[in-house]
Specification:
The structure is a single chain. The chain is 39% helix and 19% strand. The protein is α/β, with parallel strands linked by helices. It has a single domain (4-232), classed as Carbamate kinase. Helix 2 crosses helix 4 and helix 6 (138-148) packs parallel to helix 8. The radius of gyration is 17 Å and the shape is globular.
Length: 234
């Protein structure tokens, strides 16, 4: 069913119990989860946020220029991407980091055809630097890259079991959806991905699987056909 997927990870997840930065234990756990997917002969691309280091939107609400804040957020995603690359290569997973912002000494520039070639050769490709433009989130970057590499689906990792009608961490009566349409997500303003990313997925019929990354093996179970989390599709 799946030949190539794009996995969207949140930067906040990397901080673990530290509250800031990168927890090596969490990074190692993520790397092992990704290894399990590659062992199923599925090509894996990744987009990771930078919220564990810097959140551009939060800084802009405090008075910082939005463009400057967003560029700083993009740099945070590059730090996370390099850390994840190291964790993957320590367990013998060949990995390439491609950045939307030119940084030749650290990583490759983003080149669509080159990224697809890496995937075809069995390498994990990490897309960093967002879209390279301010005012766009890493969710939108994930949706855009998924279209460009012709991924079969986006897998959106979260800290809860799926998409709820309210925050399940604050409201114990929150109801979880097993399936949603893109229009449902937009009309109900459900916090799956930002509206730009959802609209992009809707226009290009890109399924989104939302699942709990803190439970080991969830991605593998979804890829094997188990009904876990929430799926957003027409």
């Amino acid at each position: 069913m799946f030949k190539r997927i794009l996995l969207k990870l949140s930067g906040e997840a990397l901080q673990g119990s530290l509250g800031f930065g990168i927890d090596p234990k969490v990074m190692k756990s993520m790397a092992l989860e990704i290894k399990e997917i590659t062992e199923m002969d599925i090509q894996v691309a990744l987009v990771i946020g930078g919220g564990n280091i810097f959140r551009g939107l939060a800084a802009s609400t405090e008075g910082m220029d939005r463009s400057s804040a967003d560029y700083m957020g993009m740099l945070a995603t590059i730090l996370n991407s390099l850390a994840l690359q190291d964790a993957l290569e320590q367990i013998d997973i060949p990995t390439r980091v491609q950045s939307a912002i030119a940084m030749a000494e650290l990583c490759e520039p983003y080149i669509r055809r080159k990224a697809i070639r890496h995937l075809e050769k069995g390498r994990v490709v990490i897309f960093s630097g967002g879209t390279g433009n301010p005012y766009f989130t890493t969710d939108t970057a994930a949706a855009l890259r998924a279209m460009e590499i012709h991924a079969d689906a986006i897998f959106k990792a979260t800290k809860v079991d799926g998409v709820y009608d309210a925050d399940p961490l604050k409201n114990p009566k929150a109801k979880m959806f097993t399936q949603l349409s893109y229009r449902d997500v937009l009309n109900q303003d459900l916090k799956v991905m930002d509206s730009t990313a959802i609209s992009l997925c809707k226009d290009n019929q890109m399924p989104i699987y939302v699942f709990n990354m803190t439970e080991p093996g969830n991605v593998k179970r979804i890829l094997s056909g188990d009904k876990i989390g929430t799926v957003v599709r027409e």
